[in-house]
């Protein structure tokens, strides 16, 4: 039986018209309360935590916040929302740059997941289950403590597994071990009609495919299942600053980094971090310092980089290093904020003219921006990258073949972000892709550009996978219950 049937009978909801979500706030709260779904109500400290977006530039007001503990709570919350025509949004770590965990607009039912963060490792199979509200740092700690296991994922311990894994998950192990979503082997999902299904390569395989890249549009994952690898005991994290005082030097250096990316050894994971006042090569090497030095030697020669830091340690040491020194084991009450605009890009190998345009914009325009900006370029692809080695259509993540992945980020330390501030980074990206075919670049939904309309967003994030995703969306969520302004629309 449809789980909503008794509920709607109880509340007389069947004939409700779909008015503004805020007009229906009381009806929604009644429905949730009668179903036994815990709420974080306005004015409570928990509510304040829930609605405080990571990016303080983009604040949204939910119609209600369901503070779920169980899969049944998620089902009932989704049923109440969909019956009233209110959009439902899972919030895990709440670290979306465009505040998609709050729905990316006002008036959503936010389903706050972070009380569901149990992680259990099966020591005999190496398969772990993690509830859908788990943060990355907690996952890393638990996998390590329960059996010295790990998956590949991004660096920030407060980021949620929900948003991160379901949309990619690129980190300092990804060149060696692939994306976070490559470690997902199954999930338990609440669908828009409030039923629960499992999915894997063999069970509901289309849903499983779509979850791994566009999960936020498809359902709410209440539990992830991950395969894991043995956490290595011999890793070296490093920072290698470069001095490129002139445009000419930067052009030679950037060209050399790109060339190196094409054949970089699989053990090396690296990004070029361009900030206003410094430029670093930084990353993680699977092996000791001598191995790192040998791997980097050709690049050090062509870029004049200095290996300023190279420290060998075990898995958790590098997790802590890249986690920025804060507490790694983050749970429900985590708080972290910045005020910024950001956008992203993937490109193939840039040609000489494109490299010149890049460096020209960097030195003549970006350097003139006195805010705290950076451009982080992950050496994402190349012939040895585990991300690019997997078949490009193996998951919904559409951008495996790109060599470089850019995050362009511009923040203010205090006060408001200026109204026209976005032009600096938007034009930076625009100058790099100028003249390229639309099919020759993409964007990363985990580094979203909040200014895109839904049509451009879908094309830029999901490229050639979009049509298939819209077809699956029509099957699992025809009414777009899990709507957000840059999500997949049903075919
Ligand atoms: C400090 C910082 C560092 C970062 N570093 C990296 C990095 O190294 N590599 C990288 O790839 N990315 C990185 N990111 C980006 C990060 O991966 C994304 O912001 C990610 O989407 C955040 O996930 P979340 O669960 O915290 O976000 P939320 O805002 O809670 O959710 C983001 C989206 O996922 C959906 N969602 C969340 N949970 C679920 C669920 N259980 N089921 C279905 N949908 C769900 C939400 O509805 C929303 O659409 C970083 C972000 C920050 C803020
Ligand atoms: C949900 O979990 C919280 C914290 O673990 C607990 O205090 C609360 O009683 C639980 N609520 C329900 C309805 O299970
Ligand atoms: C799991 O494996 C680890 C490492 O081999 C071991 O230390 C630990 O005791 C095991 N835990 C259980 C519950 O078997
Ligand atoms: C999903 O799989 C889990 C773990 O195997 C199992 O406990 C659960 O009953 C399954 N749920 C459904 C709806 O099939
Ligand atoms: C490296 O240093 C040499 C010698 O100072 C210089 O000629 C060259 O331009 C530098 N290269 C880069 C990329 O900085
Ligand atoms: C550490 O890694 C290097 C390769 O960089 C390898 O030669 C060495 O044997 C490893 N040491 C240990 C203790 O595993
Ligand atoms: C650089 O910044 C200054 C002061 O903020 C401004 O007057 C100038 O027009 C800027 N130059 C460019 C090329 O943007
Ligand atoms: C390139 O940058 C310039 C200077 O900021 C800007 O005027 C122009 O619109 C940008 N070009 C593109 C295609 O974005
Ligand atoms: C719920 O939606 C799924 C996916 O479209 C469908 O397979 C299932 O039959 C639906 N269940 C009910 C009870 O409507």
Automatic annotation (TrEMBL):
Residues 1-19 form the signal peptide. PROSITE patterns: FAD_PCMH. It comes from the Eukaryota. Residues 58-231 form the FAD-binding PCMH-type domain. GO terms for molecular function: FAD binding; oxidoreductase activity. InterPro entries: BBE (IPR012951), FAD-bd_PCMH (IPR016166), FAD-bd_PCMH-like_sf (IPR036318), FAD-bd_PCMH_sub2 (IPR016169), FAD-linked_Oxidoreductase (IPR050416), Oxid_FAD_bind_N (IPR006094). Keywords: FAD, Flavoprotein, Oxidoreductase, Signal. SUPFAM superfamilies: FAD-binding/transporter-associated domain-like. Its cofactor is FAD. Belongs to the oxygen-dependent FAD-linked oxidoreductase family. This is FAD-linked oxidoreductase YvdP. It comes from Parachaetomium inaequale. The lineage of its organism: Eukaryota, Fungi, Dikarya, Ascomycota, Pezizomycotina.
């Amino acid at each position: 039986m449809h789980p909503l049937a008794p509920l709607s009978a109880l509340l007389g909801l069947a004939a409700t018209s779909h008015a503004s979500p805020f007009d229906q706030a009381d009806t929604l709260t009644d429905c949730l309360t009668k179903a036994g779904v815990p709420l974080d109500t306005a004015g409570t400290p928990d509510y304040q935590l829930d609605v405080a977006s990571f990016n303080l530039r983009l604040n949204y007001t939910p119609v209600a916040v369901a503070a779920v503990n169980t899969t049944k709570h998620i089902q009932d919350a989704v049923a109440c929302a969909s019956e009233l025509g209110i959009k439902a949004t899972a919030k895990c770590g709440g670290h979306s740059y465009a505040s998609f965990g709050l729905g990316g607009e006002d008036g959503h039912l936010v389903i706050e997941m972070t009380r569901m963060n149990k992680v259990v490792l099966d020591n005999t199979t190496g398969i772990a289950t993690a509830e859908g509200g788990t943060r990355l740092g907690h996952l890393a700690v638990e996998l390590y403590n329960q059996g010295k296991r790990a998956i590949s994922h991004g660096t920030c311990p407060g980021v949620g597994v929900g948003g991160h894994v379901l949309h990619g998950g690129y980190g300092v192990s990804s060149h060696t071990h692939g994306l976070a979503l490559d470690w997902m082997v199954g999930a338990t999902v609440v669908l828009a009609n409030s039923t629960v299904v499992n999915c894997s390569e063999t069970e509901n395989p289309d849903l499983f495919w779509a979850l791994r890249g566009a999960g936020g549009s498809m359902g709410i994952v209440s539990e992830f299942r991950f395969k894991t690898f043995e956490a290595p005991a011999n890793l070296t994290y490093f920072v290698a600053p470069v001095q490129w005082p002139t445009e000419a030097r930067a052009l030679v250096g950037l060209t050399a980094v790109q060339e190196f990316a094409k054949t970089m050894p699989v053990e090396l994971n690296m990004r070029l971090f361009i900030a206003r006042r410094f430029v670093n090569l930084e990353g993680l090497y699977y092996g000791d310092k001598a191995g790192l030095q040998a791997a980097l030697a050709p690049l050090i020669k062509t870029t004049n980089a200095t290996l300023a830091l190279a420290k060998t340690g075990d898995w958790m040491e590098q997790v802590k290093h890249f986690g920025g020194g804060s507490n790694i084991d983050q749970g429900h009450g985590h708080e972290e904020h910045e005020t910024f605009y950001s956008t992203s890009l993937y490109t193939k190998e840039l040609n000489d003219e494109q490299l010149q345009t890049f460096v020209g914009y960097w030195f003549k325009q970006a350097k003139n921006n006195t805010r705290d900006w950076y451009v982080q370029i992950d050496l994402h692809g190349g012939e040895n990258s585990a991300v690019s080695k997997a078949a490009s259509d193996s998951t919904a993540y559409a951008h495996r073949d790109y060599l470089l992945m850019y995050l362009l980020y511009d923040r203010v330390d205090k006060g408001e972000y200026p109204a026209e501030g976005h032009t600096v980074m938007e034009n930076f990206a625009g100058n790099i892709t100028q003249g390229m075919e639309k099919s020759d670049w993409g964007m990363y939904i985990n580094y979203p550009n909040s200014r895109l309309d839904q049509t451009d967003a879908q094309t830029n994030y999901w490229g050639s996978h979009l049509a298939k995703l819209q077809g699956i969306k029509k099957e699992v969520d025809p009414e777009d219950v899990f709507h957000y302004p840059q999500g997949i629309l049903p075919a």
